[in-house]
Amino acid sequence: MARRPFFQNVNVQIVEEPVKKVGAVGVDLNIGFVRTLRQGELTVKATVAFYKPEIAFRDLEKQFPEIEFVYPNTLDELALELPETEILVILGTMYNSQVAKLVIEQGKNIQWIQSTTVGVDAFLELGYPNQAILTKGTGIWDTSVAEHALAFILALKRNIIELERVRQSRLWDRERLWGLMGSLAGKTVGIAGYGSIGKEIAKTLSGFDVKIIAYDQFPGVGDNRIAELFTKGEFPSFLKECDVVILVMPYTKETEYIVDEEQFRCMKPSAILINVGRGKLVKESALVKALERGQIAGAGIDVFEEEPLPSTSKLWDLPNVILSPHCAAAGDNDLLNTCRLLKENLKRYLEGQELLYKVDRTQEY
């Protein structure tokens, strides 16, 4: 990415000074001079859509005085800001068809879109301006998702669902419940999708007495936390090994319904499935059948084919399922981590450096 004079095409007063006099708002253009913006002039507009201007964003404003940050919270407000927007920051879950239409039609000056989610399938499916670079929110949600996956696993293994039912009935059913308790120790946990979140899950599990294996479409992503890495063509073999399967893969044409009836037949009857990746990794009708027929022992699901999950879905009524409404990523440090990534990529953008976590349109993530 070539070094970019970030004040181009903007009406501002510019003063040329020798390089030795570089100030806090100067940018070295490698031409022997620094163009210093007069105090108070703003040159780049960053639209932070559907976020409130929290303290963390105010800190970014102080660190980047050359950027004008705006915070539209409605479609009408967004429409007003888009024509002059150069940088768009938005959660992938907020990028629906209405937002995409506005961005494509009115975001003619957008050069960079920072998704603050790792999943970017909405952008790829609905489209975004051709001239824009799209980057994803890698690293923002890793810890929270890993903790949520572990919470699902332990809740299912220790049968917290049944314990809660008994509590609500005010029963002391110790003898029966004793036989329903399971253990994670000694089990094989398989992580399907060994990117940053997958690696964080492996790190979180490293304190347990488990064997960790992984599946990824790309060979060479393994590390010393996993005992074995399975790649393309080896997914059935991977499933057969697992007592716990955790899905954290991106959604692409290749991964759509990667778990269907055939894959459930590969799994152990004692296995549990955790999906904290994307909803369409799993064919839900096949999941319901597998749970009803005892092909697998249980499931913890945070993402769904259709969201919100319809009230008619059979998943609501199954006794061996824990559901959460696509909130595995939520945690105490979301905004702090978001602004940490933004700070680094804003710095890179203004200096014309390569942005972190660029999306490859051909790879679909």
Say what the CATH topology of the largest domain is.
Rossmann fold
Major sheet characteristics: 7 strands, parallel
Count the domains. Answer: 2
- What fraction strand? 15-25%
Can you tell me the CATH architecture of the largest domain?
3-Layer(aba) Sandwich
Helix and strand pattern: EEEEHEHEHEHEHHHEHEEHEHEHEEH
The total of helices stands at: 12
Helix content: 25-40%
Q: Please provide the count of β strands.
A: 15
From the N-terminal CA to the C-terminal CA, the straight-line distance is 19 Å
What does this structure look like?
- The chain has 365 residues and is an alpha/beta fold.
- It has two domains: 42-139 and 334-350, 3-Layer(aba) Sandwich (Rossmann fold); 142-323, Rossmann fold.
- The protein contains twelve helices and 15 strands.
- It has a seven-stranded parallel beta sheet, sandwiched between helices. It has a five-stranded parallel beta sheet with strand order 5-4-6-7-8, with no helix packed on it.
- Strand 2 and strand 3 (33-37) form a beta hairpin.
- Helix 1 packs parallel to helix 12 and helix 5 (142-157) crosses helix 8 (196-205).
- The protein is elongated and about 70 Å long.
